[in-house]
Amino acid sequence: MSENNVQTYIDSLNAALDARASYERSKNSDNSSIQDTLESMRKSMTHADIAGTLQAANVDPSFINRSERSNNRYNVYAAQKVDNAARAAKSVAELNHYSLAILKVAVALEKSETKLTHKDAVAACSLSVKHSEAKREAVIKSLRYAKHVAANTASTQASSSINALQTLNILSESRDAANATQYSVNRESPIVQALAARYEIAL
Question: Where are the domains of the chain?
């Protein structure tokens, strides 16, 4: 990957972050916290190594402005997890523990010839959340985040982690025979390979 290509990607990231900062100011000019968060992400994501990792993962540089609902754009907490995973792949940060648990569970479920669901992801995020299906619970049991987290917090964390992992093309969304959403691990992705090697996840 050439320096010029990475710089072009960084320029696109900067433009997207500028647009998001402007959008947030128009919503609430007094919300300095989100401006600080965006600036922190900018410092990280526009570093050549992190930007290169995002680009190699085919992350759309304007992802942070994607509309999630009619009055909201891409979740900022999910965006932080996107940045975090790229940093973890370069070994300059630890992968968010919710994202790590979900990735481990997704890989393990596929070895059991099934695929990750949101319900699985929620169960992966807390010792307090048990899966209603015994076979899935048996897979998740040893891999879940090893702390008691409230069910609503686990659900929120699962949603933002899945969102981030999809943005990074670590997970791909599909539908099962009953038209329920499920997620597959893109094992050949460089970022999946890097995270699997670092965290000893056997693909």
Answer: 3-74, 97-198
Tokens representing residue 2 in the block: 């050439």
Where the chain has pLDDT below 50, the residues are none
Angle at 188 between CA 183 and CA 193, to 5 degrees: 95
**Residue 30, amino acid:** D
Which two three-digit tokens encode residue 33?
A: 């916290």
pLDDT tens-digit map of 109-159: 999 999 999 999 999 999 999 999 999 999 999 999 999 999 999 999 999
Cα→Cα distances 197→15, 187, 192, 202, 203, Å: 33, 12, 8, 8, 9
Instruction: Report CA-CA distances (Å) from 102 to 21, 59, 111, 157.
Output: 30, 20, 14, 10
The CATH fold assigned to 97-198 is Arc Repressor Mutant, subunit A (1.10.10)
C-alpha triplet 65, 44, 160: angle, nearest 5°? 50
| pTM of full prediction above 0.85 | yes
184 token code pair: 């597959």
Separation between Cα atoms, residue 41 and residue 120, nearest integer Å: 29
Rounded-to-integer distance, Cα 95 and Cα 44, Å: 15
State the pLDDT at residue 116. Answer: 98
